[in-house]
Amino acid sequence: MTTKLAFALIFGFIIALAVGSILVPFLRKIKAGQEIRQDGPTWHNSKAGTPTMGGICFITAATVVTLTVGWSVMTSGDYSHAFVLIFALIFGAIGFLDDYEKLKKKQNLGLTAKQKFLLQLVVAIAFIYLLRFFGLIHASTERAGCIDLYIPFVNRTYPINEIVYVVFAAFVIVGTVNAVNLTDGVDGLATGTSLPVFVFYSVLCFYFGEEYLGLGIFSAAVTGGLLGFLIFNFNPAKIFMGDTGSLFLGGAVVALAFAYDMPLILVTLGFIYIIETLSDIIQVTYFKLSHGKRVFKMAPFHHHLEMGGWTGHKWTEKQLFALFTLTSLCFAAISFIGVLGR
């Protein structure tokens, strides 16, 4: 198992590095540059024209590694990692459509919020029923028509009505995917924040055993892919992951939580994503209720820090990367403690 996971990580890193070396100059050549938000920090204007859709680097890595290193797992009858890959790829495709629309219109607006929400909702519900059909989400042995929901840290499961569970799951999936998307705001931020998350999922494979090898291979592949991509995405970024990458990552993060049958672990594991989302919700709500006042200098939260909110210290992009990555790492460790008793 150790050899396969290590190979998946290294192979994923090499593939992402190779793809990035080709993709960056190609995207520059066809002028597939990112348009910058006009209401964002003024110093971000210098990033205009930086190639986007760089998520293709780690998406390619995850796909190739899952279908090669993970092939023997599939031939043994375990398709869990293939389901997670397909789910994440569909979200990546939604992101690709969004990026394409932005490039075509030459502005930072792609698909409408309604279009993205409906697409994501349909995919989320289909995924949950797929996992339910293959037994990756367990029916309750205590109560008919219910699904067991695992509670981390207390190490217990509670039966929940199946329809209620599907509604809950759809909310968690769509929310998580868009939360990861919000975190992609400065160079390397979503990449660094997500790395500890996928390391956590890889380590779970060691702890839970051979049964979860497929999910471990996928997680290790994404980890390696993100490390390879980070070489191009670290400040000053030569390429952005775009919605293509951030929606794929969001899909992978939440799909793994459900495939491991522990969606509530996202409360701690996805702490940074939650903070980013809450800051956006609070900002919009308060702005409307107060007729123009703001809680944050700018939302999401990383922009608030970047613009010197609260302390007056304007965090650089490298400092934000370090802060978010280390915080994510701490909460990944906390999350692991939360599932030790399972």
Average pLDDT: 91
Task: Indicate the percent of residues in helices.
Answer: 55-70%
Tell me the overall shape.
Answer: globular
Please indicate the percent range of residues in DSSP E strands (runs of 2 or more): under 5%
Plain-language structure description:
By secondary structure, the chain is mainly alpha-helical. It has 13 helices and two strands, in the order H-H-H-H-H-E-E-H-H-H-H-H-H-H-H. It has helices at residues 2-29, 56-68, 71-75, 80-105, 113-133, 162-183, 189-208, 213-233, 242-259, 266-269, 271-289, 301-306, 317-338, and strands at 146-151, 156-161. The chain has a two-stranded antiparallel sheet. A hairpin with a 4-residue loop joins strand 1 and strand 2 (156-161). Helix 1 (2-29) packs parallel to helix 8, helix 2 (56-68) packs antiparallel against helix 4 and helix 7 (189-208) packs parallel to helix 13 (317-338). It is globular. The mean pLDDT is 91.
Brief synopsis:
This protein has 13 helices and two strands, in the order αααααββαααααααα. The chain has helices at residues 2-29, 56-68, 71-75, 80-105, 113-133, 162-183, 189-208, 213-233, 242-259, 266-269, 271-289, 301-306, 317-338, and strands at residues 146-151, 156-161.
What is the fold's blueprint, element by element?
Elements: H1 2-29, H2 56-68, H3 71-75, H4 80-105, H5 113-133, E1 146-151, E2 156-161, H6 162-183, H7 189-208, H8 213-233, H9 242-259, H10 266-269, H11 271-289, H12 301-306, H13 317-338
Antiparallel strand pairs: 1-2
